[in-house]
Amino acid sequence: MPVKYLELENFKSYAGTQRIGPFHDFTSVIGPNGSGKSNLMDAISFVLGVQSRDLRSSQMKDLIFRPPGISAEDAKKLRAEATLVYEDASTKEEIRFSRAISEKGVGEYRVNGDAVPYKAYEDALGAIGVLIKARNFLVFQGDVESIARKTPKQFVELFENISASAELKEEYEAALKGKEEAESATIFAYNKQKGYKSERKSLKEQKEEADRFLALLEKKASLKTEYFLWQLFHIHTDVTEREKAAEELKAELREIEQRDSDKKDALANAKKKSSEARRSTAKLEKKRVKLAAEVDGLEQPTIKSAQEIKSLTKKLHTDENALAKIHQEEESHGESLSKLEVEIEEYRQTETQLQEEYEEEKQRGAGELPTLTEEQEAEYERVREAAAVAGAKPRQELATMNRKLSSARASAGSLANELKEVQGRKEEAEGSLRELTERQKTLAQSLDKTKTDLKTADTELRQIQKEAREAELKTRDIDTEI
C-alpha cells in the first residue's frame, strides 16, 4: 500500500500544520542543508513508531517545534503530531496513521482518528506490511554498515523481524515446546516400543532358548535311552556269552564227571585187582618208589633237562673215548697175549717133544732107568730150570694179561651197560625235552593267542571307553547347555 502524503504539526523544523505530498512510486526529496530533508525522514520514522534515539534526539519532547519568544506557559501547551496517509490502490480508501507527543513526552497513537494502544497501532501497520520491529520501511544512515557488522544471531533476529516471525515467537516457542514435548513423548513411546521390542526379542530368545532346552532335553533323553540300550545290549551280550560259557563249563563238568565216574569205576576194578595182587606187588613197591623217584627226578624244567642232556652227552663222549681206549688196550693186550700164547705153545711143543723123547727113551730102556751122569743131570736141571724160568715169565705175563683182559672186559661191560643206561636216560631226557618243548610251543602259541585276544579285547575296551567318554562329553555338553 503506497504512501499518499504526510501531514506535520509543530514537528521539529516544521512549524504549524504542513502537508507534504503527494508521494509517488518514486519520490526524491532535495534541498539545501537545513531545509528539513532529514526532519522529513524523522517525521516518517516517528509516525511508524521509531524511538527517539533513532530520531536524532535524546528525548521525545525535543521533537516539538518551539517558536522563538514563546512563553513558558504557552510552551507547556505545545504538542507535535505527524500523520502518514496510505491509500489502497484498488479501493482508493485512505488509512491515516497518526502519532502525537506532548510537552511532557507523553505519546498518543491514532488510526483513522481513533486513539489506540501501541499494540493495536503496531498491528494495524503490520496489516499493511509495515513492521516496526523489523524496520522494513526505511533505511537509516549507517544501517548498511550496521547490517554488515551483524553477527549470525543478529542476522537471524533481523530476518525474523523483517519476516514478522518474531511476532510468532511465543506461538513458535509454544509450538517448539509442544514439538519438544511431542518429541519427548515420541522418544518415550519409541523407547517404550523399543523396550517392548527388546522385551519381545528377549521373550522370543527365551522361547527359542526354551525350545532349544526342550530339544536338548529330548536329545538328552534320547541319548540316555540309547546309552541305557547300549548298556543293556552289552549286558545282554555278556549274559549270553557267560551263559554260553557256563553251558560249555557245565558240559565240560559233565564230561569230567563222566570221566571221573569212569576213573572211579576203573579205580574200583583196579582196587579189586590190587587187593588180589597186593602181596605180589609188595616186593616191587621199593622198586616202584625208586623208579617213581627217578621219574620225579626226570620231571625237571627244560633248562635242567638240557643241562643234564649236555652233561650226559659229555659223559657219554668221555665214556665212548674211554671204551675206545679200552678196546685199543684190549687189542694191544690181545696182540701181546697172542704172542705169549704162541711162545707158550712153542714151549709146550718143546716140552711135549722133550716128554715124548723122554718116553721113547724110557720105552727103549724097557724099564731100565737110564743112568745120567752128573754132568747130564746138571745139564737136565739147568735146562729144566731154564725152561721153568723161561716159561714162568710168559705165564705170569699171560696171567697178568688175562687179568687185565678180564678187568677190561668187565670195565667195557660196565661201561657198555652204563652207556646203554646213559643212552636210555638220554633218550628219556630227549623225550622229556621234546615233550617240554612241545608243551613250551603249545604254551607259546596259547600265550600268543592270549596276547592277541588280550590286544583285541584291549582295543575293544579302548573303543568302548572312547565311546563312553564321547557319550559322557555329549551328556556334559547337554547338561551345560541346559
Describe the 3D structure.
InterPro entries: P-loop_NTPase (IPR027417), RecF/RecN/SMC_N (IPR003395), Smc1_ABC (IPR028468). One of its GO terms (biological process) is sister chromatid cohesion. It comes from Ditylum brightwellii. One of its GO terms (cellular component) is nucleus. The protein is an alpha+beta fold and 482 residues long. Among the domains are: 130 residues, Rossmann fold, CATH 3.40.50.300; 147 residues, Helix Hairpins (Orthogonal Bundle). It has a six-stranded antiparallel beta sheet, with helices on one face. A hairpin with a 6-residue loop joins β3 and β4. The longest helix has 130 residues. The chain is rod-shaped.
Short note summarizing the structure:
With 482 residues, the chain is of the alpha+beta class. Helix content is 72%, strand content 9%.
What labels would you give this structure?
Helix Hairpins; 6-stranded antiparallel sheet; 8 helices; single chain; Smc1_ABC; alpha+beta; ATP binding; 482 residues; Rossmann fold; RecF/RecN/SMC_N; RecF/RecN/SMC N-terminal domain-containing protein
